[in-house]
Sequence to fold (976 residues):
Amino acid sequence: MTKDKMSFQATAGTAGLFAVAAALRLLLFTAFPGLPSLLTGRVEISTPVTSFKRLQEGLFLYNHNVSPYDGGVYHQAPLLLPLFSLLPDPSTYPIFTYILYTLVDLLSANALYKIAESGEGGASRLYSSPRKEKRWSGYVVATLFLFNPFTIATCIGRPTSVFTTCAILHAVAKALSGNIFTSMLCLSFATYLSMYPLLLLPPMVTLAYDRTYNSKAPKSLAQLAVMCTLAVSASLALLFISSYALTGSWEFMSSTYGIQLTLTDLTPNAGLWWYFFTEMFDSFRSFFLGVFWLHLSSYTPALTIRLRQQPLAVITLLLGIFAIFKPYPSIADTSLFLSLVPCFRHVFPLLRYSFVTASVVLYGTFLGPAFYHLWIYAGSGNANFFYAITLVWSLGLSLLVSDLAFAVLRDEWEVERPEMRGKEIRQI
Amino acid sequence: MSADIQNDGDSKPTCAEATVSLPATGIATVEGKEPPPEKEADTRRRSWIVLSFWLIAVFIGLPIWWNTTTIYRANLPLGQMTDWADGKACEPVFPLRIALDVGALPEQEAQNLLRLTQHALDDLNDFSGHHLRLQLAQAPTEATAPVRDDSNVALTIRLAPGDAAHTASSSLHPHLPILDVQYPPNSLPTANSPSSGLATYIATQLGATFAEEQNIISYLLESSSITSEHRPKGISQEVVDTVSKRMTRSLKYSQTYHLTFSLFTNGPVPSSWDIEAAIDQYMKPVLDMLRPIHNFTIDTQVQLYASPGVQSLVLGKEDLSSFVNAAEWPLSPSIGGAPTVNFIVYTGNHTIGVPSEASPGETSQSWMIPQWGSVYLLAPPAEATHVSSETLKQPILTFTSHLLTLLGTPQSGSLPMRLSTLARIRSADLLLRASSSLGSLARLTLALPSISIPSNVADGVVKTIHHLELACASLGGAKSLEHARIAEAEAERAFFEKSMVGQLYFPDEHKVAVYLPLLGPIGVPLVMGLLNEIKAWKNRRSQKLKAA
Fold:
C-alpha cells in the first residue's frame, strides 16, 4: 500500500467504498433480522445515555404527549425525539432507521476522509514530522473506519452516540478547512448530545487557529478563543432553549447531563465507573464523582499545552482518554478514537507495544461478552468477572493512548535531536 | 493510568533525557556523556503543564472536596433534649378529676364532704404523680347531659342515701365510669369534724379503683430513666412482677393494628365461615370504643388441610407454643407497616390437656400468645361445610378479651374506665419513650462528632419537643395521647434517619482507606512534579546569582 497507489485510487474509489460500506450494513441489517435487537441489548454498545431501546421508550412517551423523562428510562437529548418521530415506527418499518444510521456512518467517514486528506496528522503549521511522507490516504483511513468491526457493530446496535461521533468528526474536519463557526456549531451539537465533547474545545480552538493562521495579519489566539467560546455558548444556548420549547421544562438538563454527572444509573458498561460507584460509601459518593470528573477533564489543558504544535494529536489522545475514563463509555467511543489513529500512520514505527496492545484489546473484545454471559445469564460468575475484563479492556486502550502519546512526542524530539534517530531511549 | 499518561505527556522526552549507547567506538564511558542542556522554552512549557494540573486541583478539586465531604451538622437543642430525657422538662403528673355527684345533699354539706374526702385521699396516696382531685358534679339538670367535659372527668361518684344503718357500700357501674356509693344517712360529716367515716371510705374505694393504673404508671416511670420528685416511693416487687408480665405480654403501641382472622381446618371442611357477621356483631362494639386510641384494619382467610406444628391430639402446656405452624400457615408478620394481631380458629379434634388455672384468661379451648395473637380450638361444627355466626360467638368474644389484654388494657373496672386508663397509660408510655429517644439522640450527637446531622433530623427534634410540651401540658386529657403519639413518631424518625445510621461507625482510619488508594496514584505525580519544578527553579536562580 504505497502512498502513490492509494492517492490514485482515492479520488476514483470513495463513492465505491461508500457504496460497499452501505451495502454491507444494509445486508447485515436485512440478512440477520435478529442482529439489530441483539446488538441493541449489548451493554458494550448501548449505555444508559445512548441506548436505542431507551430512545424508543422516550419516543413513545413523547408521541403520547407525556414528558419523555417520566419513568427515568430516557436520558438522551430532547432534540433527538422530533428527528426520530419523523421516521416511520422502527418496529414496523425498521429500514428507515437502518438507512439513517448507515447515512450517519457514511457522513462520519466522509469527514474522516477530509481529515486524513488534509495531512494535518503529519504536518501542522508549527510542526512538520520528518516521517510525514509515510501516511495513509483518506481512502484508507475511511476504509479502516467503515470496516472496523466496532464501527459496524455500533451502527447495527444503533446507539445515539453515532450522532456524537459524526458531530465530532465534522467539527474537526471543518476546523481543518478553516470554517471556524461551522466547526464550533458541530462541537456544540456533540456537546449537546453527550456533554463530554465540550472538553475538546481548547484543542479545537488551537487547531482552528493554526489552520486559519494568516502570517500577514496574525490574530491572537486569545481573541479566537474568546470568539469560539462565545460561538459555542451561543449555539448551546440556542439548542437548550429549543429543547426547553420542545419539552416545556428544564427537566431534560438533570435527566441527560445530570445523570452523567451523578451516575445514578449504574447499569454495567465497558467503563470503570459503575463498579466503583456500586461499592462506594454513600457519604463519599459525591466527592469521588467530583474526583472522577476532574480526572477526566484535567488532561485537556495539559495535553493542549504539551502538544501545542500538533492539535490533531491532542484531539485524538483526548478521545482515547474519554473512551476509557468517561462515565458511560461504549465501543462507539473506542471506534471514534481508533478512526483517528490511522491519521498518525507516520509514527507507527515508533510504537513500542503495538503487539501487546492489539492482543489485550482483542482479549478484552472476545472475553468481555463471554464474561458478561457468565455473570448475567449462566450465573456461574459474578460482577467481578465482567469488571475484571473491562479493566483489561481499559488497560489495552490506555496502553494504546500512552504509546501513541509517546510516539508523537518521540517524533517531535527527533526533530530536535536528529542524531538520536533510531536509537533506543533510556532514562537517566 | 493517570500517572503514566501524564509522564508521557509532559516529562519523558524533555526532562528524562535520553542517551544512546554508542556502538563500536570502544569508549566505555557511555554514561559520562552529558545530554545537551534543556531549551528554555521546554522548561517553561513544563512549568505551565505542572501549573495547569495544580490549578485544576486547587481551584476546582479543593472546593469539590470541601463541599462534598464537610459534615453537615444541624443545630440540635441538646440541652432541652437531655432535660426531656432526664425528666426535668416535664413532671409526669396525671391529675384525674373525680366528680362527686352528691344528689340531693345541701351545698354546705357537700362541700364539707368534698374537703374531707380530698384530705383523706391525699393522706392515702403517696404517689404525687398520680393525683386524684375531687370536684362537685354539676347540678343534676346539667348532669343528665352526662358529663360536660368527658375527657377530664375520669370517674363520677354517685352518692345516694342507703338503707344500711352503719356501713357504706359501693359498686362500680358495669358500663359507665360511675361509682355508686350508698351511705348510711347518719354518716355525713358535720361542718367541723376533722374526719369522717364516709370520706375515708370513699377515699379508700377510689384508691382501690385506681390502684392498678397507679401501679402501671409507677412501673413505667420506674423503668424509664426519668428521675423526678414525683417518682413513686417504691412499689413492691410482686407488683412490679405482675405489671411487667402484663406489659411484656402486650403489643408495642401503634396507632393502627391489623387484625387477621384465620380459619384453619385439618380437613376439607369447613370451607366457609360467617366471620364478617360475627365480627360485626361481637367485636365491632369494642373496636368502636377503642377508636380514639387505635385504628384497626381487618382481613380474614381460610386455609384447608392445615396441619398444626404438633402431632398429638391432646395438647400439653409445652405444645401450645409450637401449635402454630409458622412455616406453613400463611401468617404474614405485618401488613403495610402496622403490626398484625393474629386470631386463629382451628377446627380439628385437638383438645387442651392441661387445666389452665395458672392463667385465668385462658379457657380450655383457647390460649393467648403474647405479642402475637390468640388461638381458639373449635370443634368441627355440625353442618360441616359452613361455620355459622352463632358458632363463632364464643371464639370472637374470647378474641375480643384477648385483644384487650394484648393492647395492654388494665383488667379492673368497667370498659370505659379501662379504656380511659389505657389511654393514659399509653400516653405516659409514649411520652417516656419519645423522651428517651431524644436523650439517646443527644448522647449520640455528643459521642460521635463525625456523624452528620441532616436538617430534617433537627426539624424532627423540634417537632418532637413541641408535641411533648403539648402532651405534657394536657397529661391525663384526651389530646395528650395524640400529641404523645406524634412526638414519639417524630423522635423515632429523627433517631433512625437513614443517612445517619450509615455513619454510626466510621472512624478516621476508614477515611485513610478511602482516600489513599485512589488519591495516592494521582497525588504522587502531582507532588513530585511540583517538587521538581521548585528544585529546578531554585537551581536556575542560584545559577543566575552566580552569573551575576
Remarks:
- The longest helix of chain A spans residues 383-416.
- Chain A touches chain B through 43 residues (CB under 8 Å).
- Chain A has one domain: 3-420.
